[in-house]
## 1
Amino acid sequence: MKFIGRVLLALALLAGCSVGAAAAGQGSPVQRHRLRIGWGDMLFETAVYYPTVQHVFDTPSAIPDYFRTKEDFSHWFTGHIFAEYQYSVLDFLSVGGQIDFESMGWKSGWFDNNHVMVEALPDVRFSNVVVMPTVRLSYLRKEPVSVYSGLGAGLLLSFAQTVEAAPAVYINLVGVQLGSGHWSGSLDLGAMASMSDFSKVYLMGSRLVSVSINYSW
């Protein structure tokens, strides 16, 4: 729980800095509400879950007929699909919440010495859902460009054979929003992580790059 405590402390410090900066004389934005839908990479997941090296032998007849090897193949990944709502409390400070969804899976089977699948295993599939409050600090907010950073801390639910829960955090190191009026687009650079302990890591260095379409009012 120290991990969550440190993140919440960082969120509080970020909010405090934002209030101080806004008090320096910036006006309130006309459009206080922001809803965005986006997609992020699954670099961590694709690095951890990958196809097994195929056991294709030049002379399969030299391998015993009883040879069997398990292989994973046909991997697929949805990427991080997320939605976020934020409310601009001050020019520099926005608070809100985000929900992030990802899913992945693959096929498995037992292969013989001729690399013929002799037994298909059940498909593997699991999903992660992250729900977290978020805070955004804007450094530059002048149409059509906005530059910002943000933090989020919450809970990850992993759905496979069982449902497991773990703390999760998202750090948005820098983001750029382009657009004017109600519609805009964003590019975020950051990272999402989630673990229950060092032996149970769900996410680490995932969602390094995110893009989104935003609607403000």
## 2
Amino acid sequence: MSKIASAFRDTSERSALYPLRRFLASDVFSLMLVALAFVFICFNWIIPGAFAMGIVASLILILSDDIVSIFLPVMLIASFGIQADDSLWDYMALAPLAAFPIFAFPFHHIVYRERDKSKASRPGALLLPMILVSITNFLGGIGTIPPESYFSPTSLVYMFALGFMIVIVYFLVYNHLGAGKNYTTRIDLRISKMACFLMLFIILAVAEGYVERWAKFIADPGILYFQWRNNASTLIMMAMPFAFYMSARKFRYIILPFIAYAAMIMLGSRGGLILGGLEFMALLIVDIILDKRHRKHLAGIFAVLFFGALFLFPQIEQLMEYTLGRMTAADQYSIRLGLWRRSVEDFHRNPIFGMGLGYMGNRDIHPSKAASLCWYHSSLPQVWGSFGIVGLLTYGYQMICRWRFLTKQQSMFGYTVIASFLGLELMSLVNPGIFAMFYLLIISMEFFILEKYRFPEIHMKLEVELGEGSHLTFSEDAFPKEEGAEA
């Protein structure tokens, strides 16, 4: 037994598990995961697919000291979860499989923890605001919400998952992150590639949806209905900045943001079309300005697509009729406007603590599904409606701390995480977004990585030349090359 334990604890290159751990951290394994997930999608095995990714993540936690290797499986679980509509009892049928991650997380933390206390570090600036928000989640609704609503399983799960669960994850993974622990010296490239693989999977899932209903699409060319359109757009908007980050090193990655935005259009998400379009254009403009090596190529691609869209405008207008109709019809906004108005009323009913996450009194406006909260469908009304003044103070403090932390990251990868966070916050204005546990977990892990790693800083200076105007000059390490990347 001791030999087995020693084999797991040995994280050196001499370990018998070392080749496997390297493989689990490889791009090949990530591509295999996407292929496996796509097979599940093709057979409409949505919930089995989510559990399969959970088992894969659990095995990685047991076999490898590299916790970063579970990031892609976790993001794929989120991608499966958004496609399973009103499926509580389908999940419950496979609930015993949850024993795998329940065992794997403490196993990983105990076996692979940092034993040299001099190398261990304490959590930093993000911890206190997370704890305050976690407490706020449980204070919401105190004094107003009925006990049966407050103590319902759905309410308790969300209060824990959106607060103390993230705090626990923070402590569990904090000292499992760091240089030399993750089979790469370029964790920024590794995380960025995982985000690109996530985008690839969502693109394939959208394509599969059209192939499956091809006859209907051909009979009446137009945007098909996808229940998960807003959630998929949220994941794409979180991942898109990393594809631009990678394109500065290997230009072929630039194709992903273009196709991903096309996928958002084909999903029929109004938020994805408008807010995702704003994000896409902002990232494209910044990339054209900063990436001098590929500036002409980017401008050429954009020009071809722009003039192509003008030429095909009548066909595009017909294709977009469904989405444009939903954007202009007044009744399409009645639910969200009703919920936002109700959030103000709920704030007045309990201005100190709000009505709480478990309050279901707004189901007359939006009848939410089983095991789902009755969201206000916007982050700001969610804060003041569910948590009142206490929520405005604690969530506001957390936002301030996050921005202080992010703006100190003078690296291109740091700015990429900022763009990812902004993408999530933009979609959170029209969707639960930041209040969905998987999105919160993903963005929190991005913050943790920024806190634990040091990335090449960007050194900018403003040069003024008579007759030439002003221009920014970036240091060579602003876009450090990956091995094998073109010059």
## 3
Amino acid sequence: MVCAFELDGDLIGTIRIVPMGYQLTLTETLLKQLGTAAPAVTPADWEVGRLVLAPEHRSDVEALRYCLSLAIGYACANTHIGSLYASCTHVLSRLYRRFAFTAFARDVPLPGADKLYTLISGSAPRVAQALSERPPAPQA
């Protein structure tokens, strides 16, 4: 699934959600690096990836929350999703904790590249719930 996000007629972002188990995703490539420590992937597992927001929206956590919520909500309404997986930088993994993702592997190398990734996962219902929750208003 590929979703695009529009705001006031302007395209502000895209995301891709891909079923796992077909060796199509970066996460599956990285899971191989973990060997027997890798979680067992099921037919209900999907990778959330290629989330891109326009530069003026990248630092807006609420825009990220809203876009992820729309995409995950759409995906869950249209297919069975058990767990969601993603690969990201360590800094982004801390951000995704707000949305019920948990880091399960850090500094995983991509074969043939000088990149290290953190692997995260979360139960689709828990992630959807966390995305729908509004953060507390700042105290004055």
